[in-house]
Amino acid sequence: MEGRVTGKIGPGFLVLAGFAPTDTDVQLTWMAEKILGLRVFGDAEGKMNRDLDEAGGGVLVVSQFTLYGDTSKGRRPSFIGAAQPDIAVPLYERFVALLREKSNGIAIETGEFGAMMDVELVNDGPVTLILER
User: Fold this and answer.
1) Annotated catalytic, 65?
2) Residue 126 belongs to a domain
3) Torsions phi, psi of 16, nearest 5?
4) 64 a catalytic residue
5) Is residue 43 part of a domain?
6) For range 15-38, the mean pLDDT
């Protein structure tokens, strides 16, 4: 449905999440805990010292298999490293469930797995991180 909003947050993190077929619950748990604990929000002195909870932020999780795009050969990316939907959907759902379980009330919103989405971002600051384990 065009124009439908599936997830929306104010300040916080837009998490573009890609999954490999070899990802495990250990990795998903580590990632959820890492995201929730990152201290990248400014404190009273402007230093990156506050986490999501302290900053009153939320998390918007959007599935993004193209993060596994390999452009080392040719001009068309290969997505062989990305998990197929039958594997990726349960990993995505588990990841979101872990975020919600460990979030201590932080708003966790999602996009729609596999859908063509228009995602809007207001990037308030210079922080973009790649997390991988």
Assistant:
1) yes
2) no
3) -90, 110
4) yes
5) yes
6) 97
